[in-house]
Amino acid sequence: MRDEEKTREELIDELRELKKRLVDPAASTPGQRGPDDASRLDPRHRAVTEDQRLVSRLLPDGTLTFVSEAYCRYFGKAREELVGRPFLPLVPEADRDRLRAHIGSLGPANPIGILEHRVLGRGGQARWHLRVDQVLLDEHGEVAEVESVARDITDQRQTRAELRKRDATVRAFFESAAEGIVGVDRDGRIVLANPRLESMFGYRREELLGQSVELLVPDRSRPVHSRHRADYFARPRTRPMGLGLSLTGRRKDGAEFPIEVSLSFIPDEGGGVGMAFVTDISERVAQERQSRHVEKLAALGSLAAGIAHEINNPIGIILSRIELMLMDVGDQGASGQPVADLEVLHRQARRLARIAQGLLSFGRQHQRERQPVDLTEVVEDTLLLTAKQLSRDGIHVVTALDAGLPRLWGDATALEQVLMNLLLNARDAMPGGGTLRIETGPALDQPGAIRLVVADTGVGMAPEVRARIAEPFFTTKPTGTGLGLSVSYTIVREHGGTVHAESDPGRGTTFTLTFPVQSEPSAG
User: Fold this and answer.
1) How far apart are CA 426 and CA 421, in angstroms?
2) Are residues 416 and 432 in the same domain?
3) Is the pLDDT of residue 335 over 90?
4) Same-domain status, 381 and 509
5) What is the mean pLDDT of residues 231-257?
6) 239 and 290 share one domain
7) Whether 145 and 71 share a structural domain
8) Is the per-residue pLDDT at 157 higher than 80?
9) pLDDT at res. 19
């Protein structure tokens, strides 16, 4: 029972007890039963009334006929200053009509009433009262007096207001928190879930409440999670969950994602509620993975450049010797197997030279020559070199180029190399022809950045292939080196940009390159 309801019930009980002990059946009229001072009560009655905190009686017109000692002390007035005078001056003007209406509503059909209102206590200070009134009827069944027991509830009201404010604050935090919050009872049933948790896991709140919290973890982890949950309720404390472990959440659609969880505990008579604060760390994990990948690429690039540099000169000598030998046998009019063997060696040596050149490009560490670059102009220049070849291969090129883009600070030749590689990859992905879409424009989700989009309608890539396209030496082409996209990613990264690839089997591939718009770096 709430404190307010308890107070009301106690006041009603006090009023009934007071009436039972004070009402004299032989004195049923106001004149007969209404003492105007304590001396008219016998000792037993006087003890009862003086023990009550705030007891009073008044006529239907509001005139007081009796007040207890506690009532006098509360208002700081003598009994003779109160009895025989109207009660309403003790009430602030704003509450008088409401109190008058309350008293007027009492009668034989409505003998008991309860009201909260303000009074002017000692020194004129406004305080809150909860009063319970009961009518006393005369021999004609009319209201003779109204008997009242009241309590000061100012502190209770302030406490309730503070609790409501605190509850509203907690509720606002709960509803707007950036973390997903879930409350779980001792049996593992979800009793609380905030909007962020709903969006994170893809469930509506009504779908979660009452369900086992193991609904939110992968099937393989549920038995272990259930044991850990039971251990936590046996020894609840605030702590991170799964310290040193990789935690995984499971969405409604079955997708899994990495999470971090902090635990807290709210004790109650029902065994307590365990609170879990869940953070989706997918973006952070992806960034960490990308950072590790970049570090590996940098290390591998240094190694590759060193190897390529060491073998580049021998390859050049070998190529020169083979070409001289081919010229000699040509001058001699030779043919047959020796010439065919030399041609095979020449082709493979040239392929090895291309690989070495790719390694040098991949591992290139020197600062490229930078100047203001018009990204749209880079696209147009590259298309001049590739348009005829793409057309012969049955590929229709559609462009949407922004001529007013701000310039980026970079190396136009290197960016042409990136675009050329993307165009050739798109061509290879559409062996039967298709559509190639190229766009330039501002990056709407990144103020101060521009973007280049290259999208094809080719065969697309499976997720496991898409995840490895930036790895050096990874290729799905029989004659590919696996360095084209690795070099392209490196060049884009050197320009402070990012590469985002979207692809599904049979639905084509879209590469989005984003570059910051930068001014020329200051010297020194």
Assistant:
1) 9
2) yes
3) no
4) yes
5) 82
6) no
7) yes
8) yes
9) 54
Instruction: Provide mean pLDDT across the span 223-244.
Output: 81
CB 261 within 8 A of CB 239: no
Domain end call among 159, 194, 211: 159
Query: The domain that contains 425 carries what CATH number?
Result: 3.30.565.10
Work out the average pLDDT over 463-480.
Answer: 66
User: Which residue, of 260, 280, 300, is where some domain finishes?
Assistant: 280
Q: Are residues 134 and 266 in the same domain?
A: no
Burial readout 279-300 (b: 16 or more C-beta within 10 A, e: otherwise):
bbbeeeeeeeeeeeeeeebeeb
The whole-angstrom separation of Cα 89 and Cα 524 is: 84
428 has a pLDDT exceeding 50:
yes
Question: Do 275 and 302 reside in the same domain of the chain?
Answer: no
Q: Are 50 and 171 in contact (CB under 8 A)?
A: no
CATH of the domain at 114: 3.30.450.20
pTM of the model: 0.49
Q: How many Å apart are CA 447 and CA 140, to the nearest integer?
A: 86
Helices 3-22 and 43-51, packing angle to 10 deg:
170
Choose the weakest-confidence range: 164-168, 234-238, 293-297: 293-297
Average pLDDT, the chain: 82
Q: Which residues contact 521 (CB under 8 A, 6 or more apart)?
A: 370, 409
* Rounded percentage of the chain residues whose pLDDT exceeds 90: 42
Tens of pLDDT, residue by residue over 503-514, are 888 889 999 999
Residue at 420: amino acid letter: M
The C-alpha torsion from 350 through 352 and 353 to 355, rounded to 10°, is 130
Say how far apart CA 22 and CA 46 lie, in whole Å: 9
**pLDDT score recorded for residue 123:** 84
Give me the domain span that covers residue 13: 3-159
* Dihedral Cα 274, 276, 277, 279, nearest 10 deg: 180
**Mean pLDDT of the 95-121 span:** 93
- 320 and 415 housed in the same domain: no
Tokens of 400: 């949407």
Measure the CA–CA gap between 411 and 521, rounded to whole angstroms: 14
CA-nearest of 278, 284, 280 to 180 is: 278
Together in a domain, 347 and 247: no
The Cα 467–Cα 201 span in angstroms is: 24
Supply the pLDDT for residue 27: 39
Domain assignment present for 521: no
Domain count of the chain? 4
Residue in the structure block whose two tokens are 């949950």: 229
Pull the structure tokens for residue 293. Answer: 């990948």
Distance CA 397, CA 457 (A): 11
Residue 246 lies in a domain: yes
Instruction: Give how far the C-alpha of residue 355 lies from the chain's centroid of Cα atoms, to the nearest Å.
Output: 48
Q: Pull the structure tokens for residue 288.
A: 């960490």
**Cβ pair 519, 450 in contact under 8 A:** no
329 contacts 265 by C-beta, under 8 angstroms: no
Q: Does 169 map to a domain?
A: no
Which pLDDT value is given to residue 300?
A: 65
Answer yes or no: is 171 within a domain. Answer: no
